[in-house]
Amino acid sequence: MDFIQMNIWCLIIPLLVGVICAYLGYLIGKKNKKVSIDEAEWILIQEKNRILKANLEACNDKLSAASALAAGTATTAVASLTTTTNTEKYFDSAAAKAAMGKPIKQDDLKIVEGIGPKIAGMFHDSGISTWKALSEVAVAKCHEVLDKAGNRYKMHDPASWPMQAKMAYEGKWEELAKWQHKHKHGKL
Q1: 88, CA 20 to 30 Å: which among 12, 57, 107, 179?
Q2: Where are the chain's structural domains?
Q3: What are the per-10-residue average pLDDT scores of the chain (188 residues)?
Q4: How much is the pTM?
């Protein structure tokens, strides 16, 4: 009988030590867990960074143009200002149709998954009527536009809308079509 009791303790003690170690390992791992972000959020962060860099570059160009104007070289200043404001992209409807599988009108916000005619109208009323304008808007502003329309629109998630609008504005139609297909047309 003593032999059996001794064998039981030989099993129980390592089992208890194992359970305690596993629990402590879980707590330590939970404490050191890094915060991760999903792909759409990462793309939005990158896009926001790109927009900020472009805005900084445009401001620096305008500043140099203004300083050139102050220095007396007006023709250089005017030329610099006209080149910084002429940044509109060329819209290729044939490429858009080929990639998206349907005719696309320039600056049609409905090409963005999740935006239908009513939401597009709400954005137009808020002064956001082009792909470029939507691509430069923060997601929080998109939420504001939806919140103004009432509870009916709370189910919409505009997290990827600026990113999709940027792809459309830059003419990256195949990339936009692949993204929308990968994300099952907004229905994850």
Answers
A1: 179
A2: 39-87, 91-188
A3: 68 89 86 70 79 80 76 53 50 90 93 94 94 94 92 90 94 92 66
A4: 0.54
